[in-house]
Every structure is written in structure tokens, then in C-alpha cells.
Design a protein that fits this description.
The protein has 16 helices and eleven strands. The structure holds nicotinamide-adenine-dinucleotide and (2S)-2-hydroxybutanedioic acid. Belongs to the ATPase C chain family. Belongs to the LDH/MDH superfamily. MDH type 1 family.
Length: 460
């Protein structure tokens, strides 16, 4: 009897287990939601415990019944809720919560202006929007009391582009900042636009919005393109970046032919000649307005020389001439200000470190790109000198890679004076020592090839 009792108890347990498992399976499979998981785990714990065997049959039935109930009532509840929502027309103002208290809502002129201001960065400007928007281009502070220039950054969502956009938003000389990229421009624009500085920020995404991004710009900064990875030269970027720069410069020729262009995309020694050829083809080329950005070489040179001399880098001025790649980067250490002298070892160390500065960062980043933060800093420093030149400030001199007659090459980096029309004067290289003269010959050999490669890319 006892044995039979035990057997029947075991049979009951097995039966309950199998029903419980079936119920649990049907709950999990049918519901696949939190409630289903909770039910299935409680049923499972009951069937595991033999002392609860007698209760388990009851629990299994309870679980089974609950499952069926959920399965039956869920669609009915869903139908009832959705019909309540469908019955309200939310676009009808009379059905909106505040209608009865205040009547139909009419935006005041002030509210309209605020809405336009808030949404300016979300809806990239185009001619139509400019005409209809309350915050049209003509109403912007760009043309208002606060003097300011209109600046576009092409490639604004990239490693350089983002910090560059942030720093340009902080520049008091900028009143309108256009951020263009083929990816993520709205996100970067929304983010930057919350900064409480004077410039109005607008975002532009993808080729169809390029022309709107460029229309009316005073200065266009181009960091668009792929960066190096370890083991690559800047010239390895040519195949991709040449096409990107060509397309962007065609847009500039069409929409803002008088803008100053700061070209950052590598290889600068070739991309500047590419841009020049595009502008020539379009009939808009003004050599004074096209500047290859070599400022990072100067920034590095000032820093490394200051380290060796034990000075504040802000007190140091090192001219860096030639181009922007390997041996074409030629620091003129004999012309450092304040005047100083270096041992041959120091000269060799500093020259090499300045020439390899970009590679030092590429290797340290180990595949995650090249210099971005120091480049954004250098780009803003250079853009600021261009804007101050445009404003008419006197004595603005920086190094840049420009159309030049300083050597026999058509382009060369040297000190230039920036004025209202761009690079108004290109300075001679000045007295050089023997070490620098040897360096100059090496630089010219490599530069000649890179320049020709850029020219041929457009002329082919
Ligand atoms: P990145 O890849 O982080 O950013 C490049 C950005 O360009 C990306 O957001 C990308 O979407 C955008 N882009 C690509 N194609 C585009 C197009 N057709 N139109 C608009 N945007 C486009 O690269 P990064 O680190 O910012 O470097 C950008 C370039 O600057 C590289 O070529 C790099 O070698 C060069 N660079 C130059 C200097 C210099 O001293 N001149 C210094 C550092 C880097
Ligand atoms: C630099 O000098 O940091 C840039 O030209 C990027 C690179 O590829 O080195």
C-alpha cells in the first residue's frame, strides 16, 4: 500500500511534471514576455520539489489556465486601446488638451522666431527655406550688428572636423558656421549648436546639400577624406582623397568662388594642385585664395624647439617651408625666433622629429587614425589668421602651401602675408645654412612629383 501510494505519488509527480513543462513551454513560446518567463520559472520550481508533488498538478492547471486567459484577452485589450486612440484626431486642434481653455493656438511672431531658431540646425538651409524662414540668411547676425564671417567646414563630422567645428563656434570672428559631411552632420550640428556662443550653426548632409552648404561662404575649410594608418604614406591616400577634393572644389567654384579655401586633406602636396586645376577649369582660380594648411608643422616645430630650448612654446616661432610630407617638411632652424643656435645633433633630432611628427601620432594611435586634436587646433589658428586678414588687420603672417615663385616649383610652403584678398604676399625663404640647403633640394625633388601627380589627375 505504502509502495503503491509512493508509486501513484511518483506517477502523479511525472504527470504533473509533464503537464507543468507543457504549460511552461506554451507560456514561454506563446507569450515570450516578462509575465511568461515568471510563470514558467515558478512552475518549473514546483515540479522540481517532490514534497510539493501534490500541489504541482493544481499549479500546472493554474499555469495552463492563466496562459489561455492571457492569450484570449490580450488581443481584445489591444483592440480596445487602439480604437480609443484612433477615435481621436490629434491633428485636429479642437481635440488637443488646451483647446477648451485657450481656444485655437496661434503662434505669436516671437514664438515663430523661436521655433525657427531652434529648428534652424535640424533643417539644412536651402534657397526656399531661406526665403520663407523668419530667421533667413539676411536676418542672421552674420549681416547684423556683430561683425562676422561665414565659414563652412567640409568633413565636419570627422576626427578633425568635430573639434574644428567646436573651436570655430567659439571664434568671435565667425557669425555663421556651416557643417557639411556625408555622414552624421545633423548630430554634430545639433550638438555644436547648443554652445552659447555667437555663431549660428547649420548642418548639411550629403552631396545634394553641398551647394546650400557653400552658398555665400567667406572661408571654406576642408578636412574631408581618409586618414593614414600605420605603414602608409600620405601619398597612399591620393586615390580616395583626390576625388573627394575634386568634387568639393567643383562645389566651391560654383557656389562661393570668392571664398578663401583652407585645404587640410592629404596629401596636401597634391590636393592643392588638384584644387587649383579645378578652379582653373571653372574659370574661378585666384591663387591668393587657395591655401594648403601646413600650420601643424609649425605648431609641432614651435613645441619641439621650445622643449629643447626650455622655453614657453608660445614665445617660439619656427618657419617651416616646402610641403607637408616627410622630407618636404623643412624647418628653418637657423631662423628661429627668439634667435638661438643648435648643435648638429640637436638640428638633426629636431628636423627629423618635425618631419615625422604625423607618423609619430599615426603610430601612437595604432590604426585609429592620424592627428585630429592638434590638427583642429592648428586649423583654427590658421583660419583665425585668414579671417583677421580678411577683416583688414595688418601684419598677419603665417606659413602655408601656396602658388609660389619662391622656387622653380609652382607650389611651395613659405611665409605668406594674409590680407583682405587672401595670401597677398609670398615671402622669400631668407638666408639658409648648408644643412637647410641640402634639405631644400631633397624637398623640391619629392614635391615636384607630388605636384605633377595632382595636376595630371585633373588634366588627364
Ligand atoms: P576622418 O576619417 O576622421 O574624417 C574625415 C571626414 O571626412 C569623415 O567624417 C568623412 O565622412 C568625411 N568625408 C569623406 N568623404 C567626404 C565627402 N565627399 N564630402 C564631405 N565629407 C567627406 O579623418 P580625419 O582624421 O579627420 O582626417 C581628414 C584628412 O585630414 C585626412 O586626409 C588626413 O590625412 C588629413 N590631415 C591633414 C593634416 C594636415 O596637416 N594638413 C593633419 C591631419 C590630418
Ligand atoms: C599630420 O601631419 O599629422 C597629418 O598630415 C596626418 C598624417 O597622416 O600624418
Amino acid at each position: 500500500m505504502k509502495k503503491r501510494d509512493k508509486n501513484s505519488q511518483l506517477e502523479m509527480l511525472e504527470g504533473a511534471k509533464s503537464m507543468g513543462v507543457r504549460a511552461a513551454t506554451s507560456v514561454s513560446a506563446g507569450a515570450a514576455v516578462g509575465i511568461g518567463n515568471v510563470l514558467s520559472s515558478s512552475i518549473h520550481s514546483v515540479v522540481q520539489n517532490s514534497s510539493l508533488a501534490k500541489q504541482s498538478f493544481g499549479y500546472a492547471i493554474l499555469g495552463f489556465a492563466l496562459t489561455k486567459a492571457i492569450a484570449l484577452f490580450a488581443p481584445i485589450m489591444a483592440f480596445l486601446i487602439s480604437s480609443v486612440f484612433r477615435s481621436k484626431d490629434w491633428s485636429d486642434p479642437s481635440q488637443q488638451p488646451n483647446y477648451r481653455a485657450h481656444g485655437p493656438w496661434k503662434p505669436s511672431a516671437e514664438a515663430n522666431q523661436r521655433i525657427a531658431r531652434i529648428s534652424a540646425h535640424l533643417h539644412p538651409s536651402n534657397v526656399q527655406m531661406e526665403e520663407s524662414s523668419i530667421l533667413g540668411r539676411t536676418n542672421c547676425r552674420a549681416k547684423g550688428g556683430a561683425p562676422g564671417f561665414k565659414v563652412a567646414i567640409l568633413g565636419a563630422a570627422g576626427g578633425i572636423g568635430q573639434p574644428l567645428a567646436m573651436l570655430m563656434k567659439m571664434n568671435p570672428l565667425v557669425s555663421v558656421l556651416h557643417l557639411y559631411d556625408v555622414v552624421n552632420a545633423p548630430g554634430v550640428t545639433a550638438d555644436i549648436s547648443h554652445m552659447d556662443t555667437g555663431a549660428v550653426v547649420r548642418g548639411f548632409l550629403g552631396q545634394p546639400q553641398l551647394e546650400s552648404a557653400l552658398a555665400g561662404m567667406d572661408l571654406v575649410i576642408i578636412p574631408a577624406g581618409v586618414p593614414r594608418k600605420p605603414g602608409m604614406t600620405r601619398d597612399d591616400l591620393f586615390n580616395i582623397n583626390a576625388g573627394i577634393v575634386k568634387t568639393l572644389c567643383e562645389g566651391i567654384a560654383k557656389c562661393c568662388p570668392n571664398a578663401i579655401v583652407n585645404l587640410i586633406s592629404n596629401p596636401v602636396n597634391s590636393t592643392v594642385p588638384i584644387a587649383a586645376e579645378v578652379f582653373k577649369k571653372a574659370g574661378t582660380y585666384d591663387p591668393k585664395r587657395l591655401l594648403g594648411v601646413t600650420m601643424l608643422d609649425v605648431v609641432r616645430a614651435n613645441t619641439f624647439v621650445a622643449e629643447v630650448l626650455g622655453l614657453d612654446p608660445r614665445e617660439v616661432d619656427v618657419p617651416v617651408v616646402g610641403g607637408h610630407s616627410g622630407v618636404t617638411i623643412l624647418p628653418l632652424l637657423s631662423q628661429v625666433k627668439p634667435p638661438c643656435s643648435f648643435t648638429p645633433e640637436e638640428t638633426e633630432y629636431l628636423t627629423k622629429r618635425i618631419q615625422d611628427g604625423g607618423t609619430e601620432v599615426v603610430q601612437a594611435k595604432a590604426g585609429a587614425g592620424s592627428a585630429t586634436l592638434s590638427m583642429a587646433y592648428a586649423a583654427v589658428k590658421f583660419a583665425d589668421t585668414c579671417l583677421r586678414g580678411l577683416r583688414g588687420d595688418a601684419g598677419i603672417v603665417e606659413c602655408a602651401f601656396v602658388a609660389s615663385q619662391v622656387t622653380e616649383l609652382p607650389f611651395f610652403a613659405s611665409k605668406v602675408r594674409l590680407g583682405r584678398t587672401g595670401a597677398e604676399e609670398v615671402y622669400q625663404l631668407g638666408p639658409m645654412n648648408e644643412y637647410e640647403r641640402v634639405g631644400l633640394e631633397k624637398a623640391k625633388n619629392e614635391l615636384a612629383e607630388s605636384i605633377q601627380k595632382g595636376i595630371s589627375f585633373i588634366k588627364k
